[in-house]
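Lecture notes, unit on binding sites. The following record was shown on slide 14. It pairs a sequence with 5-O-phosphono-beta-D-ribofuranose.
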Amino acid sequence: MSIKASDQPLVGIIMGSSSDWPTLKNAAEVLQEFGVPFEKKVVSAHRTPQLLYDYATTASERGLKCIIAGAGGAAHLPGMTASMTLIPVLGVPVQSRALSGVDSLYSIVQMPGGIPVATFAIGSAGAINAGLFAVSMLAADSPGLTAKLEAFRKRQTKKVLESQKELEV
Ligand code: RP5
């Protein structure tokens, strides 16, 4: 499935490298499923620091309501982004080759008091939940999104209950 970003995004998805996209695309798919407009961009804390500065410092005025930031290894992208904007930053630790994402997780979760980053699980589960968390935040001002979340939860519960039948054949 090709994932297209919208003209007027409410959520920014940024990642340290295009190699992070297979993980972050899980967040994009959630936003697309809920009809939430988003943008996606490679922004590296270390390799494109000026781009990171420009992105983070203009995020709010450009209308973004939150940023999902994913990175692996020395994953400073979510924390540095959070340090330069007041909008919520949701950090997704990407599973790294050398240390399986534990390095990414620790880099993202161990923020100093005063600059929060909401940190999710390593890998695709974290990206899915970051997408759902963004939808939940936006749902606070959107009865339509709340209804979609309720329907999503019901479908999910039904699917799990039905999976029991597979054990019984
Ligand atoms: C991080 O380094 C990126 O977020 C990525 O997870 C990791 C490896 O990047 P590449 O070498 O694949 O570009 O900055």
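Take-home: The longest helix spans residues 143-168.
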